[in-house]
């Protein structure tokens, strides 16, 4: 999910950012366009050098016309031209510019992108909602400690609301909902008469949308972190209402749910002109703040949160972090990163190493008939090590949670194709097997679906063979006849009862049986006369009888 296309000025290398390199990140949003210039150093990280922002409000009229307004386009081109000049004067080596909801949805969005390239000379990349959410989360994760709690990050833009849910710092959920402040204002609050009633009706609509995109059961009582202009404005207004001086930086400010409700109610009684004079609120945001606060209030209510924490860092900061470190770990052993991910998810190390060991034994012995190759072997090995990561979230549906965590894990560095394959192989390690009813599986090519079927079939049997998480099976041998596959398992010590393991594997052999076109039979072979003294499978701790 990590976006990696970066526009280069005076540099075409894809190696990690050199010390003291200056980077420029431009966020072309639905309401504002923002530039952040930073200097990167391996030792000290990012240092902000300059910041420029303007509000051409590209989403103005979009909800009704489906197009970017011509005047807004001209304004945006002027803003981007000034930002290019700032980058040149500041000695920026690389610029990355991304466009979000408004440009993404507009019928003339591609035309705007072309004009930015031709008139300004900056390649502008349209990113999808998932990538937008990931970049926002990356900046939040960089500035907050997120490894010991459930966290929900919300970024309210002009056109959409991006939600990112994380458990112990690992992304489990991303959602993009059409709940941006400009969009909602145009659709529900364009008439200034009876504002209180209109806000009440708006909240009802927002509530319905949120319930469709976010499970209150899964994310109730989560820590809520808000990123974007709505939240920084909220923090400044809340501080002003407390009677305290408004600080220049509101990063980390806590705002209670009661304060959000009181502010929304109070501002609803004021005219747009009166709201422009409210302490802490930018006059340029006065007309859309009610919609932003309505979304905030309903989000707090849905997750039953008592307060939220404001992040002063957003998508641009995530973009800078991506530029600075996108390639830093690519030369590392991919299995090392996979194992580190499994450890962060608190996986049972002995179990996953045992499943990996048994999976590879099955794969190597069945490769001639399955048609697997070394590349698939690595996919299977990776999936075996992280098939259970979803238990960090919940046991009951941990195969689904494993899929989500793998798809959003930043440091695995699979290709997009391999990430999806590994995630699906892990997803199908229990319960039902691969199905075309699953949209993620259905989108694969026939060849890729075949890979998922055969590798998930192998993984399911291997996982069943360690049903008790005891690593009690030492090895296995396969015999293939015209009608069946016989898997003979050898215990680690004489007299070991493998009934649970054989039962577990037989229950999960359905997918492999379909792939082979044969029944699968699991048998116990004779074990050694005494407990073995040799080491356990590579990477696995020895089993304790």
Descriptive key words:
545 residues, Nucleotidyltransferase, domain 5, Hypothetical protein af1432, 6-stranded mixed sheet, 46% helix, disordered N terminus
Describe the structure.
The chain has 545 residues and is an alpha/beta fold. It has 3 domains: 7-128, 2-Layer Sandwich (Nucleotidyltransferase, domain 5), CATH 3.30.420; 130-314, Exopolyphosphatase. Domain 2 (Nucleotidyltransferase, domain 5), CATH 3.30.420.150; 334-524, Orthogonal Bundle (Hypothetical protein af1432), CATH 1.10.3210. It has helices spanning 62-65, 70-89, 101-105, 109-120, 129-143, 181-188, 195-213, 216-219, 229-241, 257-268, 272-275, 289-302, 315-325, 334-344, 349-370, 374-386, 398-408, 416-427, 439-442, 446-464, 499-507, 510-516; strands at residues 7-8, 21-28, 33-41, 45-54, 94-99, 124-126, 150-156, 161-167, 170-177, 223-227, 254-256, 307-311, 473-480, 484-491, 519-524. A hairpin with a 3-residue loop joins strand 13 (473-480) and strand 14. The model is unreliable at 1-19, 326-332 and 527-545 (pLDDT under 50).
Structural class, by secondary structure, is alpha/beta
Q: What does the overall shape look like?
A: elongated
Report the top-level CATH class of the largest domain: Mainly Alpha
Number of discrete domains: 3
User: How many E-type strands?
Assistant: 15
Rg estimate, integer Å: 27 Å
Task: Quote the beta fraction.
Answer: 15-25%
Structural topology:
Layout: E1 7-8, E2 21-28, E3 33-41, E4 45-54, H1 62-65, H2 70-89, E5 94-99, H3 101-105, H4 109-120, E6 124-126, H5 129-143, E7 150-156, E8 161-167, E9 170-177, H6 181-188, H7 195-213, H8 216-219, E10 223-227, H9 229-241, E11 254-256, H10 257-268, H11 272-275, H12 289-302, E12 307-311, H13 315-325, H14 334-344, H15 349-370, H16 374-386, H17 398-408, H18 416-427, H19 439-442, H20 446-464, E13 473-480, E14 484-491, H21 499-507, H22 510-516, E15 519-524
């Amino acid at each position: 999910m990590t976006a990696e296309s970066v526009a280069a000025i005076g540099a075409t290398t894809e190696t990690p950012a050199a010390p003291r390199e200056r980077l420029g990140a431009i966020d072309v949003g639905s309401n504002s366009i923002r530039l952040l210039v930073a200097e990167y150093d391996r030792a000290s990280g990012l240092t902000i050098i300059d910041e420029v922002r303007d509000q051409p409000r590209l989403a103005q009229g979009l909800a009704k016309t489906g197009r970017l307004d011509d005047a807004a386009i001209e304004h945006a081109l002027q803003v981007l031209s000034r930002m290019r000049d700032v980058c040149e004067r500041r000695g920026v080596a690389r610029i990355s510019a991304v466009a979000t909801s408004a440009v993404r949805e507009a019928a003339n969005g591609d035309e705007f992108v072309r004009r930015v390239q031709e008139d300004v000379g900056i390649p502008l990349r349209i990113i999808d909602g998932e990538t937008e959410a990931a970049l926002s989360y990356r900046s939040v994760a960089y500035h907050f400690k997120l490894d010991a709690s459930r966290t929900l990050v919300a970024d309210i833009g002009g056109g959409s609301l991006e939600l990112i849910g994380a458990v112990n710092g690992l992304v489990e959920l991303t959602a993009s909902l059409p709940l941006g402040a400009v969009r909602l204002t145009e659709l529900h609050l364009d008439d200034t008469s009876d504002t209180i009633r209109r806000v009440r009706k708006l909240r009802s609509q927002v509530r319905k949308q949120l319930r469709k995109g976010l499970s209150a059961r899964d994310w109730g009582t989560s820590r809520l972190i808000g990123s974007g202009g709505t939240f920084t404005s909220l923090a400044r207004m809340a501080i002003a209402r407390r009677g305290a001086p408004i600080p220049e930086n509101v990063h980390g400010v806590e705002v209670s749910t009661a304060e959000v409700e009181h502010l929304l109610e109070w501002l609803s009684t004021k005219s747009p002109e009166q709201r422009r004079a409210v302490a802490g609120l930018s006059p340029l945001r006065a007309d859309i703040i009610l919609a932003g606060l309505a979304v905030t209030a309903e989000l707090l209510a849905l997750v039953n949160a008592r307060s939220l924490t404001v992040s002063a860092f957003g998508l641009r900061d995530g973009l800078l972090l991506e530029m600075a470190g996108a390639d830093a770990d690519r030369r590392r052993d991919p299995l090392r990163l996979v194992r580190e991910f499994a450890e962060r998810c608190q996986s049972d190390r002995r179990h996953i190493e045992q499943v990996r060991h048994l999976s590879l034994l099955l794969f190597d012995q069945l490769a001639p008939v399955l048609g697997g190759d070394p590349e698939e072997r690595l996919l299977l090995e990776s999936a075996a090590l992280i098939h259970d990561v979803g238990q960090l979230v919940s046991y009951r549906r941990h195969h689904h949670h494993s899929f989500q965590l793998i798809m959003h894990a930043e440091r695995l560095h699979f290709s997009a194709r391999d990430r999806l394959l590994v995630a699906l192989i892990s997803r199908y390690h229990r319960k039902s097997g691969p199905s075309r009813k699953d949209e993620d599986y259905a989108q694969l090519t026939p060849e890729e679906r075949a890979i998922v079927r055969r590798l998930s079939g192998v993984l399911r049997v291997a996982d069943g063979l360690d049903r008790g998480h005891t690593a009690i099976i030492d090895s296995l041998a396969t015999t293939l006849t015209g009608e069946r596959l016989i898997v003979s398992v050898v215990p680690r010590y004489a007299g070991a009862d493998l009934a649970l393991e054989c039962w577990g594997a037989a229950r999960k052999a359905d997918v492999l049986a379909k792939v082979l076109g044969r029944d699968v039979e699991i048998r116990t072979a004779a074990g050694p006369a005494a407990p073995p003294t040799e080491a356990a499978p590579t990477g696995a701790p020895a089993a304790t009888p």
